[in-house]
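Give me structure tokens for this 429-residue protein.
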Amino acid sequence: MFADRATISIRSGKGGDGHVSFRRELYVPNGGPDGGDGGRGGDVIFEVDEGLNTLQDYRHRRKYAAKDGEPGGKKRCHGKDADDIVLKVPEGTVIKEAESGKVIADMSGDNRRQVILKGGKGGLGNQHFATATMQIPKYAQPGQPAKELMVKLELKVIADVGLVGFPNVGKSTLLSRVTNAQPKIANYHFTTLNPNLGVVDLEGANGFVIADIPGLIEGASEGIGLGHEFLRHIERTKMMIHVVDAAGSEGRDPVDDIHKINAELHAYNAEIASRPQVIAANKIDLIYDDGESENPVERLKKEFEPQGIKVFPISGVTGAGIKELLYYVSTEIEKLDVAPIIFEPEYFPDEELINLDLPYTVEKEDDMYIVEGPKIEKMLGYTNLDSEKGFAFFQKFLKDTGILEQLEELGIEEGDTVKMYGLQFDYYK
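Here you go.
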């Protein structure tokens, strides 16, 4: 089974915790702090692999996690950084946040490798927290927490031209004749299950990439049958070739088929429906001219050429008319000069996953105000209080979470001491 989408859980590594320890040497009774820093947690990285053309691997395994960073050690020993986890995907894979459907990354064009979830930074050891007033700090910074996310992977085939049409109209036969692709060809009413890509080489003209995309059926825009799978793959194409059975060998009306296909395209995405089109009136070798009924190719031309949609009578079996069709398509693509369609990011995990809605407590003990809770510990884990920007973020955090308001309700005054884990500072408005 061709797999063009999958939903998986990804998790970056937690940063290693900073260490609390003190130097112990002979003749040095009160050695200073020497706790080392924690190592960085592993990133979750997506990378394009040219050898892949499906998301099949992600159907069997649903959870992927990078390793955590090692904690710091004694004697200023730095914890080891964790290895990143690299997930290989085919070119054209779009990574979306599963719940909202917003695009995180499009693995196409120049984007061959992208960090989706960053590992947590390692926490600072207690050696960093010694001050003139606190020379034996018993606090080390915890490692920044891991980030976890459910993502939806969708493979959207990258091709200049998409072959569209109902099942059994001869798309696979046409593709096999004009490219080096080797699609499975049979009379399946359930149609081709996977997009087949091939390169069309033309003498004296520019070649192009063409895709025989899973066959369309009525109701596709509502997700019936393989509808959404079909429509997902044409989102990147610059131009479409509508292949119809001009001979009506299965009792279908070719004019009606084109109208139905365009209606489905329009219902799914009007912008896609407005892209340039050309009609390949296939199976002309099967047309029986009784001299009385109107030739089906002429009917197609009368109906669609006034709308600017050119009709080419062809035979996928004998090869008749195919050359003219391909040279026309090549010329039209040159006129378009359309840049490849890349889906822009709409969801940024680094910003979205900072969750501060965790409990905390604010209490007064003797002359000191103590603020604790996982919310505070988490904030200290990813904030560098030594930098101006980090300290400004810390002050905003205290205000936005209501901690300052609670301290004032408890009667704090300027110059009073506030303690958060091992961190102590004087309160000033």
